[in-house]
From TrEMBL:
Catalytic reactions on record: a primary alcohol + NAD(+) = an aldehyde + NADH + H(+); a secondary alcohol + NAD(+) = a ketone + NADH + H(+)
Locations listed in the record: Cytoplasm
GO biological process, one term: formaldehyde catabolic process
Full protein name: Alcohol dehydrogenase-like N-terminal domain-containing protein
Organism per entry: Aegilops tauschii subsp. strangulata (Goatgrass)
Predominant place of localization: cytoplasm
Pfam families: ADH_N
Keywords recorded for this protein, A-Z: Metal-binding, NAD, Oxidoreductase, Zinc
């Protein structure tokens, strides 16, 4: 554990007091990878829920005290992809790989005046995180923080894969390879779209029970 300085939010940014965060496989992969730029010291984490502690100049959609989810691919709502309904390809707030903020290519973390790099422009393994307001989503204060943090990445990625990418149709059969967080979320998304048969493929026999529970019917089979 290290004490770090967290700068105030810049224009169009918010500072979030992180309440709950989960670890994604991509955090571990990036930490262990030798193929990526050597950006250390660095704070990982990108699946988080929290409370807005302060807002930067120009922020209109958030107020202090709002509950929020962080997202690692944001929406600027003005680039050609955002205005055409393809905000997952946002040109302004897309996946950030350099360890800095989208807005000015600098960091908001430091130790003794030296920069500490971000991860995916979120860095939720910290008590506070500064994110672009377009990389956060306001949520109801009644939602359980320790559960909804999964919606930041794994759960939404799986649900979106079934709902938007595969566009699962009613009565169809779906095969899912890997029943981790994303795979189980695909199963739930397929169920919501009316799939008649959901087949999970995984090498871990313990996943069968989880798969059946995820879709609440016995048509989820493990191969």
């Amino acid at each position: 554990m290290e004490d770090v300085e967290v700068a105030p939010p810049g224009p169009l940014e918010i500072r979030v007091k992180v309440v709950s965060t989960s670890i994604c496989r991509s955090d571990v992969t990036q930490w262990q990878s030798t193929a990526q730029p050597d950006l250390f010291p660095r704070i990982f984490g990108h699946e988080a829920s929290g409370v807005v502690e302060s807002v930067g100049e120009g922020v209109t959609e958030f107020q202090v005290g709002d509950h929020a989810l962080t997202v690692f691919i944001g929406e600027c709502m003005s680039c050609k992809h955002c205005v055409s309904g393809k905000s997952n390809m946002c040109q302004t707030l897309g996946l950030e790989r350099k360890g800095v903020m989208h807005s000015d290519q600098t960091t908001r973390f430091s130790i003794g005046g030296k920069p500490v790099y971000h991860y995916c422009a979120v860095s939720s393994f910290s008590e506070y995180a500064v994110v672009h307001s377009g990389c956060a989503v306001k949520v109801s204060p009644t939602m359980p923080m320790d559960r909804i943090c999964l919606l930041s990445c794994g759960a939404s990625a799986g649900l979106g894969a079934a709902w938007n990418v595969a566009d699962v149709s009613k009565g169809s059969s779906v095969v899912i390879f890997g029943l981790g967080t994303v795979g189980l979320s695909v199963a739930q998304g397929a169920k919501l779209r009316g799939a008649s048969k959901i087949i999970g493929v995984d090498t871990n026999p313990d996943k069968q029970e989880k798969g059946i529970f995820a879709v609440q019917n016995n048509n989820c089979m493990l191969l």
